[in-house]
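[step 3/7] fold_predict: job queued, chain A
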Amino acid sequence: MQHWVEEIKLSNGAEGLLIDAPSTNVTYIDISFRAGYYLSPEGKMDTAHVMEHLALGANKVYKKSSQFSQEFTKHGAYNNAYTGDYHMGYIAECAEFETERILDLMCIAIESPLFKEQDFKSEIANVREELKMRKNYHDTELLLELENSLGFVSKSYGTRTKELSKISLEDIKEHYQKTHFAKNMRFIIAGPLARHKNAIIKRLENIELPSGGGADRTMGRIDLPDEPPSQSSQPLVIELNGIDNVYYRWMSIFNGLLSRREKYALYAVQDYLFSTFHSKVFGKAREKGLVYGIDSGYYRTRDNHVWAVSGQVQSKNALPLFDLITKEL
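[step 4/7] structure written:
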């Protein structure tokens, strides 16, 4: 699809990309802040999560979340919010002719949330239900437990569920004040933008947020947390009753960040070992009837790249599979 990408740096310190795709008829909006789980107050990791659940709701113009939702979606537009380890964001999709109206509504929600007490109580309950559900995702729970044992900020869903009762509405308001300022904001807006570009820039430059952060409002973008990894002397073993398969995860933490050349080399290694039916590990494991699938991928923290191999396997096939993985690695 033909498109043009323009990097935008606004006068208030916000930065982002405008992607003009003239052959489309839908606009996509993503506005994010460094405000995710790992930037929440100590011992209250889901502060960012609860704030996300309260986002795109009651605000200074629309006093009830139902009123805002009705106005936002009246021509078929869609909105949502998300929380990641480092970022919390707001997204929307709408028809091209709705671009400026929907962006304005997004900005109103971001710049003037009301954070009502009753809404807060409801969303604490909803987040607790979500975390209890996610605790049954054993592969993800294993990832979080392993990362925590290696010195990363992450905590298991079980631990986070216990922390929920410590989070107050004041924590939500303080986290918002701490993280929602223009220099900490990034955006991506894509679609047929030619006739909307000037209006988009004007609205984002005039969003009613402080330019900088900190007590004096001069601080730039929030730093990512420092997560110096440690090396485990023993494997992490978690016993769960009533589960047929063994969930496993092998992680290699690189000392520093990989260069572009090294990342491409890692892609090749992943393909060679795990990505095809003729690969050295997955291919052989399939031939022997040991596994249905194996996952391999990499991600980064502030200072390190992490390569992970994970999956699940029947107990009787675990040792032959682990022997194969160890031999090929």
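[step 5/7] annotate
The chain has a mean pLDDT of 94.
The CA atoms of residues 57 and 69 lie 7 Å apart.
exit 0
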